[in-house]
Amino acid sequence: MTPRHKRLMLAGVVLGGAAVAVTLVLNAFNSNMVFFYSPSDVLKQQAPKDRTFRLGGLVEAGSVKRQSDGVTVRFAVTDTAQVIPVEYRGILPDLFKEGKGVVAQGRLEADGTFRAQEVLAKHDENYMPPEAANAVERAAKAQTQSRDTLQGARP
Amino acid sequence: MIPELGLFALVVALFIASALATLPIIGAARSNLAWMQLARPAALAQFVFVLLAFGCLMASFVNNDFSVVNVATNSNSQLPLPYRMAASWGSHEGSMLLWVLMLSGWTCAVSLLSRSLPLAMVARVLGVMGFISVGFLLFILLTSNPFDRLLPPAMDGRDLNPLLQDPGMVIHPPMLYMGYVGFAVAFAFAVAALLSGRFDATWARWSRPWTTAAWVFLTIGIALGSWWAYYELGWGGWWFWDPVENASFMPWLIGTALIHSLAVAEKRGAFKAWTVLLAIGAFSFSLLGTFIVRSGVLTSVHAFATDPARGTFILLFLLIVVGGSLALFGWRAAQVGFAGRFDRVSRESLLLGNNVLLVAAAGAVMLGTLYPLALDALGLGKISVGPPYFDAVFVPLMAPVVLLMGIGPLARWKQASVADLAQRLKWPALISVVAALALPLAAGRFSWMVALGLLLAAWVFTTVAVLLLQRARAGAGQLARQPRSFWGMVVAHAGVGVFIVGVTMVGGYQSEHDVKMAIGSSTVVGGYRFTFKGAQQIQGANYVAMRGDFLAQHVDGGRSYTMHPEKRVYQVQGMPMTEAAIQTGLTRDLYVSLGEELPDGAWTVRVYHKPFVDWIWGGAFIMALGGLLAISDRRYRVAVKAVELPPRSAPPPIAGATPGATPGPQQPAAT
Predict the structure, then answer these.
(1) In this complex, is the C-beta atom of A130 within 8 Å of any C-beta atom belonging to chain B?
(2) Mutate to test the interface with B, among A34, A75, A95 (most CBs of B within 10 A)
(3) Taking the model in full, what pTM does it have?
(4) B428-439 CB burial, b ≥16 within 10 A, e <16
(5) pLDDT tens for residues B339-365?
(6) What b/e readout covers B641-667, taking b as 16+ CB neighbours within 10 angstroms?
(7) Which homologous superfamily is A34-153 in?
(8) Where are the domains of chain A?
(9) Is CB count within 10 Å lower at the N or C end of chain B?
């Protein structure tokens, strides 16, 4: 093999390796993306049935109920327009509170309950998880829009 | 007065930095000696003024000066003194000032420890660092003034976020920033070399100890952050693939590639263009990390949109630095040359493979970190990419890196014989495979992931052993004659092995249990019985807490441990905080954290058994120790000291080159 051939082969090996790596990365990326939905989205059947997703909003006031085993908790997540019941088994984060922002990651059960594998609350008093803020914001926008159309419809 | 003095010092520092960024570089281009000679005093003066500014900020925190916005929002008169000092970098403004302090500190260190370098080189390196400093000083003065006054002054401050009130806060950010910012030195050396068009082995040799030093700090900083998250957040995890973590991990990956490619550049004169590119890349990733963490895009893209000044500034600066240096690279690349020939199987080719994989890994982390942000910014929906993605990508990319890591040091430069390598690697391969199959079976639960992890760890240890044997066989006393840089490599690689053991064992064998516990009840996790004795209220410095009382003992008997997890409420912000109780051991951690009190007096409790978890951070510290050994290699010191000292005198202890290696009786004992 001439040095030229050797160099070409080296370049080929490097490029081939890079191609394998890129394929691997993109493939893993595709199958592990977790989408975010608000309670309104879920009730509009937009959320996937067989895939993990994130649900964000506010913990509805008065909805937190601890089950008899002590570590299973049921609560409701709302974007102020719609409500989704959530069940979670485990210790809740310190800043989980009724009326405050929350993001839950898990799957939607056939009965409409969201079974969370993970519950995230905000990092401090002033900061709301971006997804939760987004859900409430969109619901508020949707409401004002529908009010506007109602008012517009009235002569 | 003190805050105004600090602001004034920053303005002065900006003027000095502007002079530093321009005059010495022009001087170097025009061979103007006087202008080049400005670089060293300017670097020193810049450091003095930034240090003064930082001192003023810290003094404002220590004195509880609540007429300063920064102090009023991030401190409180009840806050213990060490945390008031650490609160200096607890806010956005303060941490940017810490960034600049670190940068000017590195600049000053380069100016003091570069006596053997040609003046033109020193002028260019310091000039480039001055340019970066101008950018960040402008950023602070225009968008993030830490000395803004509050009128009327607040009665008391809003307190430091309780999550940050921890010893980790005192050391983790400075260490991390030392590493982050330290890559500016490697970057400056690379750009200086591009400006001068001079790329020889000495360039790589100058750059090497600095790059390794930055890498050591970054390694320690990341490890400390991981450890802090482990014990403070109360979830027992050691790495979350959080964007903030990734921001520091990307420069680490590129930096690791860089220190290896610098080795090739120094020893063989190969990979020069690639090395320059990596040096630019490592610092660009540091800047990118700063952008991710500091622009507010993480909290919310919308927050960024409503106050875009900061993010836009960093982004523009990032574009100027990266774009400018890459353009310079493109212009000069032909001159850099791709010199150095090597065979398909050689230490060079193995290191190249390793480099490519590390860069690919950094790219994968970048994709997972930036893509969700980009989608959100463009209004295309919100997604998150969690640990499953990173795990799926990292294992297949890193496993070959570790395999190559075992082979590389045994292979010859330029051309290695496959048969010879196979002969040497026969035993390590055999032992590793046997260990990978036997150990998980002995542990009672076999999984391929654990087998792979143990295979890699055993491979690292056995190949290091073969390397040592090979050197020892070369002749009597050969091993003792190996340079420190060799031992640095051996130690750092062994550290990787220790790290892999930790990751593998925790990943494969940890047990976790969330359980309701009444007083007097017990639960068994990971072979240990945890008994809940009760909880009582205690009063802390600035919090009240419920303190649990647990007894942990192995089911087979033996020593019993009392453990006291706490549920704190910090009084100023009324914010609850979980303080886990951890019983640390060489082969396992026991971890108890309190959930909440139930109406019947029982508590929800999270109990973990984490085998070998401390090996994760232990491995990282061993890697850092290896880096320190490598920096202390004689050939760097000789180069540094040759001009400074008359050759007849005995070598004095070297300050700076080996931090911590000069036990000075003149130093007061740490109290």
Answers:
(1) yes
(2) A34
(3) 0.90
(4) bbeebeebbeeb
(5) 567 777 888 888 988 998 999 999 999
(6) beeeeeeeeeeeebeebbeeeeeeeee
(7) Nucleic acid-binding proteins (2.40.50.140)
(8) 1-33, 34-153
(9) C
